[in-house]
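Help wanted!
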Amino acid sequence: MTRERLVNAVILLGLLGTALGAWAMDAPYTITLATKVAILALAGVGLNIALGLGGLVSLGHAVFFGIGGYAMGILASHAQSYSPILTTPFVIEGTKSMPVIWLVAILASALAGLVIGALSLRTSGVYFIMITLAFGQMFFYFAISWPAYGGEDGLSIYVRNGFPGLNTLDPIQFFLICFVLLALGLGLTARLARSAFGLALTSARQNAARVQAVGISPYRLRLVAFMLSGMVTGLAGALYADLNRFVSPTMFSWQTSGEIMVFIILGGVGRLFGPVVGAAVFIVLEHVLGGLSEYWHIYLGALLLLVVLFARGGIIGLVAGREVAHD
Amino acid sequence: MSAVLFIEQVLNGLQLGVMLFLMAAGLTLIFGVMGLINLAHGSLYMVGAFAAAAVAGATGSFLLALMASLAAAAAAGAVVEVLVIRRLYARDHLDQVLATFALILIFSEGTRWIFGSFPLFLDIPAVLSGPVTLPGGIAYPKYRLAIILAGLAVAGGLYLLITRTRIGIQIRAGEADREMIAALGVDISKLYTLVFALGAALAGFAGALVGAIQSVQVGMGEPVLILAFVVIVIGGIGSIKGAFVGALLVGMTDTLGRFLLPGLFGLMMDPSAATTVGSALASMLIYVLMALVLLVRPTGLYGTA
Amino acid sequence: MKFKFLMGAVCAAALATGAAAEGVKVGMITTLSGGGAGLGIDVRDGFMLAVKQSGRDDIEVVIEDDQRKPEVAVQLADKMIQSEKVDVMTGIIWSNLAMAVVPAAVAQGKFYLSPNAGPSALAGKGCNPNYFNVAWQNDNLHEAAGAYANDAGFKNSFILAPNYPAGQDALTGYKRLYGGDLAGEIYTQLGQTDYAAEIAQIRASGADSVFFFLPGGMGISFLKQYADSGVDLPVVGPAFSFDQGILQAVGAAALGVKNTSQWSKDLDNAANVAFVESFQAEYGRLPSLYASQGFDTALLLISAMEKADVSDADAFRAALKAADFASTRGDFAFASNHHPIQNIYVREVIQEGDVFTNKVVATGLENHSNAYVDECGM
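Answered by r_m:
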């Protein structure tokens, strides 16, 4: 077992242990925080497919996070009011079932990823960062001014959606759902990185011409990576909306995109568990610093700056040391 | 719709464009010379506005306030460059985005810490207040005309600076080949600090000019920052000429879109729905424009790959 | 952030003197950082002033910052309910945050006293016995502006608001009582800072008056640009853009503008005179509309605590409903849907020395309730 693997195991068990410990001590809010960490980490895991593996710096991943959130909001609100979403040409009813909502969130994100990716990947570098940001802004303003689903007020659902056989209103059970999905997301990314596709993607990041020369289109590789990345982040968005029982255009804002990226950098770019550590540290900081000062953003900013300037491998890099497998 | 109203809206579009150019010029210059993507540019705009409001409040002089905005933003820019930005030139864009995102947090809450949570007051100077009647009977605010002229003057000045002066030659050389001009004995780190401070001063100047007709408050920089990014991406990053064209294009599109779209939809649907849909689309319009430009020219109008 | 205000030694003193009631734990979620922090700080300061003046040692207030993000507010509400186990919640400034938090909180049996936001959904079909609004129903100030427009003889108004639900409600509210024609109706972008295009349309429209709802920085920008444009039509709007906190930033551009509010610094009643004086003494600034609402919210809570124990929900609810406190705005009562019945005044922006402030010039609507009473089943 390499040192990074050991660190990874400690991280995952630490998150699980925190939630279970809080459950044993009857501290439901701590479980809520742990759930938030798991969900935001999953969003980061999604972005990490594009960013860490594909080298695609997307400042618009809030689009997928928001689409996932609204997939949950729209389906659940229709189920809540017993009004079908669509009557012609055929009837589509709302639903309060998590698996169905997840599927819709993932498919909608895949579709958005296909369209946004197909357009954005024609550019590269700073242009790519900016065009993804522009798509994020389009969705943000659209969500604010579209009155059908609450506009800026967002959509509230009053009871968390259901999962067959589980009581999702119980914080620890909902945490476990999110935790399992996070573990699946991490497993998927790990397999992806080792697969032929992942290796080709990594080479395309390092030297696109070389990949092109052996007859693989870097554009297609990146497009698929971007879609997969969006799908995972979209799933996280649906879970996040369910955690809050609420969705609003804030999920589409460029600050959300920035925060998801912050998780990855804090944890360490290209590290499988980077987003998990990053999200955990971010939430703990928000909680601790927020209690210390009204101006806690100053300290958060200073800390981020220090990590970017002086701890280039992120927190995992500090703890686990540099690893040869990641360039 | 009368011709007078249309011309007035075109002037408004021009004024917004010129304003955006002041922001975008600094951004694109910094990117062109140092290869740095600076999200904290909006914070320097805010610094300029706050410095102007503070000085105007203390002295009552708008001219002094403008000078203070230039000085404060340039100084803040130079300090940030020496302490932070300088370490980012060799990094990839991801690190730059993150570090400057962190700077936004520090600047915003720091400003709130110093000046409090309520907006500050900055007024138009008496000489420039009120409207003036242009040929054709168009009443237009003097101050907005002054902004248009000031912006055009800055554009002209920048053009001269870059094409006619020694600094300008160094800047252009820096864009073309960094190693080479260092090898030729130009103090590259001093040049970088200078360029960064110049870009910051332009942003601060824009903040002060706009602060007089808008609200001087924490967070005022970010919406403008995003617009400025749209501008430089449309124009081609690194190109001052592109920034100018892009700024005018964005200014016109935004102003005329807000003005014309609700009416256009009014031809197809009932008025109140048209207002809502038209406004929604108008707020997305410049991003659509940007996406379209990039689809046709992936490096912007005047960009080089 | 979290401040715990524990007034004196709680239990021991209460038990020793044989006082019956146990304390009340209040969870305040409000905006204390970022651009909209001024409003939340005023609500908090007004609320804490009333708690301090009551001299009670059995009110514990837990204060958290929502950063104006609805998701954060929801999570803080979970924390207040699950971990802090508060009895009463309050503090939210923005309607969209209230819509995210209030329904779930009252469904879990907590009392919610709104010091600011009053979205129509919570006044109509979504009303709840445990939800009390101490400020206004969102439409109220706009309705009063419409009524004032009739009184002032306006026949052709140009109206504008941002394109989001509260903006759409504002224009609906104005049109509800306004009897004249509309010269134009515009939805602007949320957070927009430049209004040149809209002002040009106002100039060309042939309107005789302008009504706008543009809260925060948007209103400051609009007013400065409007004053400079040379269009000199009379302007009327709700109090939000003319409040003490931001009036200094608008400056002379706001002078003479009529705005509608249920409170004003110069309302001549004993409670208000004492409030304005003590607020200034405590915090060194003039109180705002929001500070008065925070103050009244605490007064309402304290009045209920004097009559009933919070653990007896029915009695406590009845005590809140009675609204037996001396409001800074004068007469105050709750309609059946737990929103205020109150006078709404027309104020004019004036200059006192070098400070810009408001004075009451007329009563826009007397004992005004809200349009959603019938939709609410209570």
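OP: Thanks! One thing I noticed: Residues 3-320 of chain A form a domain with the ABC transporter involved in vitamin B12 uptake, BtuC fold (CATH 1.10.3470).
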